[in-house]
Design a protein that fits this description.
alpha/beta; globular; binds flavin mononucleotide; single chain; 309 residues; TIM Barrel
């Protein structure tokens, strides 16, 4: 049995979602926060709220940072350590051009000098633990190999590898052969991330990559929040039970977000993201009804109908 980690998804796995998931089902070793970055010389208050210990009480959370220099790395690590965190994840995988073209996320992979400098920074961080989340490269699969070798110079908690290039974003086939090649170069433990949507997927990956430390799940776990618990507890839930869990989470999320968000439109937009990856579970027609509901009243009616699925 491998560990399961909840992937960070900006706009989806915020502090509210993580708290509710952890409280109602869990099955996850650690939750990673969406990346925190330097913006106009500081950290956005929205990001600080997301990682504040008060908002993450009782949830096993690791903050993630994105940076394009040792200076940004050291600033962000300093601020996060001040909050009391002892472990930080380093984003070397984000493919969005806004980040990547500024040498952040997977944009850093082509700049071995910056990675080497950050590795030196990691060595000087004393008792702070680090992990790295990365992909294959921007437009090739060679960058990751070089970076993994550089990362062999430090002891990390693990490297999470998503086997796609930056130009692929989250589409197209995952390159499991490249994953096999690159993970074999790592002295650090490796976690597999990408397109896992069932317990069977995890069992197949376990058979092919027996040395993995674990799996990181994103969209598949958002679409079926019991997936980690089903795997780690060796259970198979019925569709009815899976949807019942989503509805229970939905009630708590509505409650929590109504304290933060203003007006029906904000609520509707936020709550619809909760179902975004759940089409396979809900099936097409009920899913469309929820996602296409034009106002909060119709939305809540469509959600209420899910109870009968
Ligand atoms: C909308 C969206 C936002 C994401 N935000 C982050 C992020 O903040 N940090 C990060 O490391 N990865 C981010 N990712 C990547 C996911 O963590 C994950 O690597 C990716 O979705 C592939 O895993 P999956 O197929 O299990 O979803 C994001 C992905 C999506 C689709």
């Amino acid at each position: 049995m491998k560990n399961i980690y909840f992937a960070p998804l900006q706009g989806y796995t915020d502090d509210v979602y993580r708290r509710v998931h952890n409280k109602l089902v869990g099955g996850v070793e650690l939750y990673y926060t969406p990346f925190v970055r330097v913006e106009v010389g500081g950290i956005r208050s929205k990001d600080l709220r997301d990682i504040s210990p008060a908002n993450n009480k009782g949830v096993p959370v690791v903050p993630q940072i994105i940076f394009n220099s040792r200076k940004e790395f050291e600033y962000l690590v300093g601020r996060i350590v001040e909050l009391g965190y002892k472990e930080i994840d380093l984003n070397m995988g984000c493919p969005f051009p806004l980040q990547a073209k500024h040498k952040r996320g997977c944009g850093i992979l082509a700049h071995k000098d910056i990675v080497a400098d950050v590795v030196e920074g990691v060595k000087r961080c004393g008792d702070v633990k680090f992990s790295v989340k990365m992909r294959l490269g921007w437009d090739n699969t060679d960058d990751a190999a070089d970076v993994v070798r550089l990362l062999n110079g430090v002891e990390l908690q693990h490297i999470t590898l998503h086997p796609r290039t930056g130009v692929q974003r989250y589409k197209g086939e995952v390159d499991t052969d490249a994953f096999a090649r690159i993970s074999s170069l790592s002295d650090n433990a490796v976690i597999y991330n990408g397109d896992i949507s069932s317990v069977e997927d995890m069992h197949n990956l376990e058979a092919r990559f027996p040395n993995l430390k674990g799996f990181m799940l994103g969209r598949g776990l958002l679409g079926c929040p019991s997936l980690a618990a089903e795997y780690s507890r060796g259970e198979v839930w019925s569709t009815e039970k899976r949807i019942a869990l989503m509805l229970a989470m939905h009630t708590e999320l509505m409650d929590e977000y109504s304290k933060i968000l203003k007006g029906d439109t904000q609520m509707l937009n936020k709550m619809r993201t909760f179902w975004e990856y759940a089409e396979p579970l809900l099936t097409r027609k009920p899913y469309k009804k929820v996602m296409k509901s034009g106002n909060l009243k119709n939305y809540l009616a469509a959600v209420a109908e899910l109870k009968r699925l």
